[in-house]
Amino acid sequence: MNEVGRHATMSESDELAAVRQVLQERAEEPGALLPILHDVQDALGYIPPHTVTTIAEGVNLSRAEVHGVITYYHHFRSAPAARHVIQICRAEACQSMGADALLAHAELRLGCSAHGGTSKNGTFTLEPAFCLGLCASSPAMTINEEPHARMTTRSFDALVAQYGDCA
Asked: Is the pTM of this model over 0.90?
């Protein structure tokens, strides 16, 4: 089971305790909000909406400011991801080599949008990524952080089939 799946069953009080631990470790750092959000997502797999007030109080910001940062950056999730997370690169090199067509195919195949959408059966979450570092082998994607290069719609379908049905 991936990191997200392992943490998906934590109680709200356990999630708040994890957030308070992160705040205790980082709150005094200048510009601590982004490192705090990264640490919370690493610990929980996402940033639960009920923790935003605690985070805001911990860094002396408004709830709206923290929520704005969470929703601005594509990396942060406000809901748990599915068992398998697929990221398709949206950087220029990948776009020039067919990433737009690959992304459109992935959305149709999985039946969800590319901005944190989850397949109907909950197996896959589809997310955009902005440079996976495989520019010379584009278009690129990851499944559960494992990189895959020179992707086509056919290789996408074959790879997804290895992880389970997406219907």
From this structure: no
